[in-house]
Description:
By secondary structure, this protein is α/β, with parallel strands linked by helices. It is 36% helix and 17% strand. Strands 4-3-5-2-1-6-8-9-7 form a nine-stranded mixed beta sheet, with helices on both faces.
Amino acid sequence: MSTEKPRRPRPHRVLLKLSGESFCAANGFGIDTHELGLIASEVLDATKAGAEVAVVVGGGNIIRGAELAKSGDIQQATADYMGMLGTVMNAVALKEKLDSIGIDTRVMSALDIQAVAEPFIRGRALRHLAKGRVVILAAGTGNPFFTTDTCAALRATELDCDVLLKATKVDGVYTADPHKDPTATRYEELTFTEAIEKQLGVMDLTALAMCQQQKIPVIVFDFKQSGNIRKVIEGEPIGTLLRTKD
């Protein structure tokens, strides 16, 4: 009897959510050229696998607005806008790297920064994707008090994406932090309701609720493992799949 796991449907259009920490070395800061190259090569693999790719980038490697606001010297809204500018820096860096390896790329920003990015306009973004361009989405939703996870859920909905790919430092969602609890076990699949009730910290609650409402599956996987994004796009059952209840 075969124990091979069933393959998942191949997505046509994906939304890849990258944390700001993806752009720096472990426990580092800023943009590391080696890590930038790894990200670009994975995105290249995704396009070669035949997927249309939109990318939402975080900015935690540049600045963390929420932590900055805790000092009390900078208001939360202002700190969040500063964090949005950090995502623009990551987006521009990734665009330059992707351009250098032959991938036609556009940066679209929720904040008006015409010198470095196009404004986010849904119809224009859809045309870029249809032409095979990678679209990097910067500045979150353009509003304070919303995370880039929520932005990823929103953009995945707006751009009719088949799946949201949540890139992390671990190979899925666990019952507890596997770095702290050696008995933690990984989920193969979860419903959004289970993830919310168990408070597993996959994404913020607003993002999870939106994906649940819009029936956009989320796959949480280890982005640092070379070739994983292509495997996800080709339907291999890696990471943890979050979905609506059947």
